[in-house]
Design goal:
heterodimer; A: MetI-like fold; 8 strands; B: alpha/beta; 14 helices; about 40% helix; globular
Chain lengths: ~375, ~350
């Protein structure tokens, strides 16, 4: 008896007990909601389950990174939508980061014009709803001339209200070898960077890392390209019927979404970057100057490593926001996951299944981004200690 | 819900499913007669309509709804309460409409909804008789000089999602061994802007909607032509939930009463005089000979109220989509069977 009382008074045991009780309650509520929904859907004669995923989708999708036709299954259609979401999000994350860092640094510039410009950019972009911005970008895209009167800013590159058409290399086995050589070159460059760092740390002498690494990345693919006969045949876009055929294409929907997401998120990233840089005391810069480092070296070797500790956690949440904001694509017709899921749900009538799948997918994407950024955060945190 | 909100797609979809989930979870089992009794008790019909489709269901500047679909709900209210005004409207997007009906949020879905096998079975719905026989068509700029949808190979086509439209257009191009690129935009305004701005070569939708868009959104309607091919059958029909036969019966026969009145030449102006008609069919329709009302569970003068307050089907058609409206749609398939159309009411006896 006294053992039991003792155990109940132990903070550890009580902690486990409360957590167990909470978990049981949460599970019971979830079970109740799911089972009740299923029962009622069955009572109302509404079909449930995920069997529809193997049926023929029967609708076309405007753009796809997979070979997709209307005769493919719903599962494949959803995969196409998911890839479209990932593609636009990944591209926008890169673009927003570059733009955000530039604007953030510019806002701290001692040049009055540059600093003011960055401040106006941040305050305007952050305070106008993203949906409106997307509609504006899309409207601008639609203002371009029709395919027959397309602009040709570069030879064989056409800009029209159907998007941008550009030449692509016609397929050739030599490209595969060049790609393999490129991957090998990148691996070699990574090894060189590591060796260069070790060399500097052990001997204290500089090592020409940058030129060597660039050469390691560029030379092997070029060599492979020439060795396979330099296959430089282009697939050119040609006006045929309603639109251009052949060549590569970027649609106005993708472009508008990419620009909209990047420009919007860059406004937030700029402020995060600024706060990170301001978090490093001024004395560090002065110390760097006293050591005779150049401004670029001070930024790269002194300020950024310390600023990244402050920058990375809020940056993670901006990346998450960007990915979730990509679902506004439906407003301007980019066939992302939400768009394809909506169509599937409507055609099959299985809204609950479709929406829960969509929620699960966004959750997984978000957890992946958060996981990666947390890993990166731990890395940059350790480097500075 | 305001139109502008619709674009927040995830939010909208999630909230619909949340509504569906919670209300399905909360409301328990549907019982026979539950909707009929529920409507009677609360004193009005909750009618799911389009967010705004001129001619079918659209609010005017005072917020008063009118249209061919709206008239179905008004007819049901007239039959049940003797007052066509006892209707409350829930504007719904294409994606919201089926969950709203399934969850019991609305009593009737009169929202240019195509009757299909899947909706009739797996989605748990019943359908009242078709109140508008439509078909999906293509609208193109007149300057392209196209004569047939068969010339659309390689075209870019603007499509509104959340309908059978996407599948129909895919089926049509597959069947004719042609290719196309869809541009699927959820917001009507953005979709139409994209089409009129030249992003797409063709806009596809039900022919009646194309006519409505052309009438309302172009400066010179003659700049756009609707191609002759109708690529699908779109029997637009009011929908109700399965499991309440009394309610299904009332909605079904309220509509048939409008068609029957047109066949007998009774309008809202002549219905008073028709009460003294010697025609036994008219006597049964207007409740002079009792029986129909009792069978449906409403007053005997139910059909009189419909014709008096809403009008017969022909009146509703002309006022909303026909010659008396901006759409100027010819009767076509929607004429009475006696005039070569498909509108046919079974005997009301």
């Amino acid at each position: 008896m006294s053992n039991l009382v003792q155990a109940l008074n132990s903070a550890r045991v009580r902690g486990w007990l409360y957590q167990g009780l909470f978990l049981a309650c949460a599970l019971a509520v979830a079970w109740y909601l799911v089972s009740n929904t299923l029962t009622n859907l069955a009572n109302r004669g509404v079909a449930t389950g995920f069997g529809f995923l193997n049926r023929e989708a029967g609708f076309e999708i405007g753009e796809s990174f997979l070979a997709y036709a209307a005769s493919d299954t719903y599962l494949k259609a959803l995969a196409v939508g998911l890839l479209n979401t990932l593609a636009v999000s990944a591209a926008a994350v890169v673009l927003a980061s570059v733009l955000g860092v530039l604007i953030g640094v510019a806002r701290l510039s001692s040049n009055w014009m540059v600093g003011r410009f960055a401040a106006v950019y941040v305050e305007t972009i952050r305070n106008v709803p993203l949906l409106l911005q997307l509609v504006v970008w899309y409207t601008i895209m639609n203002r371009l001339p029709s395919p027959r009167e397309a602009l040709e800013p570069l030879p064989h590159v056409f800009l029209s209200n159907r998007g941008m058409k550009f030449p692509v290399l016609a397929e050739h086995p030599g490209h595969g070898w060049a790609l393999l050589a490129l991957i090998a070159g990148i691996a070699a460059a990574v090894a060189l960077v590591r060796y260069g760092r070790r060399h500097r740390e052990t001997t204290g002498k500089p090592f020409p890392t940058v030129p060597l690494a660039i050469a390691a990345v560029i030379l092997p693919p070029v060599a492979a390209f020439i060795a396979t006969g330099a296959p430089l045949a282009f697939d050119l876009p040609v006006l045929a019927g309603f639109n251009f055929e052949g060549g590569g294409a970027v649609t106005p929907e993708f472009t508008a979404l990419l620009i909209g997401l990047s420009v919007y998120t860059a406004g937030f990233i700029a402020e995060i970057v600024r706060s990170g840089i301001l978090a490093v005391p001024q004395g560090q810069t002065e110390a760097g100057l006293a050591l005779g480092l150049s401004p670029v070296q001070i930024l790269r070797l002194v300020i950024l490593p310390q600023a990244l500790r402050v920058i990375v956690p809020p940056l993670t949440s901006q990346y998450l926001n960007l990915t979730k904001n990509s679902s506004l694509a439906v407003a301007i017709g980019y066939p992302d996951l939400v768009s394809v899921t909506n169509t599937s749900a409507n055609q099959t009538g299985q809204v609950v299944e479709a929406v829960s799948m969509m929620m699960a997918v966004y959750l997984v994407i978000s957890l992946c981004i958060a996981g990666f950024m947390n890993w990166y955060n731990r890395r940059v945190a350790l480097v500075t200690r | 819900m305001k139109t502008s909100l619709r674009a927040f797609a995830i939010a909208a979809t999630l909230s619909v499913s949340a509504i569906a989930l919670t209300s399905i979870a909360a409301s328990g089992t549907a019982q026979a007669g539950a909707t009929f009794d529920g409507v009677k008790q609360k004193g009005y019909v909750q009618c799911g309509v389009n967010l705004g489709l001129y001619g079918f269901s659209a609010p005017d500047d005072k917020g008063k709804w009118s249209g061919l679909d709206v008239d179905v709900c008004r007819a049901v209210a007239a039959a049940m309460f003797g007052d066509a005004e006892k209707v409350k409207y829930t504007p719904l997007s294409a994606q919201q409409r089926l969950p709203a009906l399934q969850s019991g949020e609305i009593d009737i879905l009169a929202r240019n909804t195509t009757r299909t096998l899947t909706r009739d079975t797996a989605n748990g719905l019943n359908f009242a008789p078709t109140n508008y026989f439509d078909g999906q068509g293509f609208m193109v700029a007149a300057k392209l000089g196209l004569k047939s949808a068969k010339q659309l190979n390689g075209a870019t086509v603007c499509v509104l999602p959340g309908t059978t439209t996407e599948q129909n257009v895919s089926d049509y191009f597959r069947a004719n061994k042609m290719t196309f690129k869809p541009v699927v935009i959820e917001k009507n305004e953005e979709l139409h802007k994209a089409f009129f701005g030249g992003r797409c070569d063709a806009l596809t939708s039900d022919a009646s909607q194309l006519a409505a868009i052309r009438a309302a959104e172009t400066q010179n309607p003659a700049d756009y032509v609707i191609l002759p091919e109708l690529i699908s059958k779109e029997p637009l029909s009011p929908a109700i939930r399965q499991g309440d036969e009394d309610w299904t019966n009332l909605v079904t026969w309220a509509f048939y009463a409008m068609v029957q009145a047109e066949e007998k030449g009774i309008t809202s102006e002549t219905v008073d005089a028709a009460m003294t008609s010697p025609d036994p069919d008219v006597k049964r329709l207007l409740g002079v000979t009792a029986g129909n009302g009792k069978a449906l569970g409403v007053e005997e003068n139910w059909a009189f109220n419909i014709v008096k307050q809403v009008g017969n089907y022909g009146q509703s058609y002309e006022r909303n989509v026909g010659a008396g409206s901006k759409l100027k749609m010819p009767r076509g398939q929607n004429a009475l069977y006696t005039e070569g159309g498909l509108m046919y009411a079974p005997p009301l006896k």
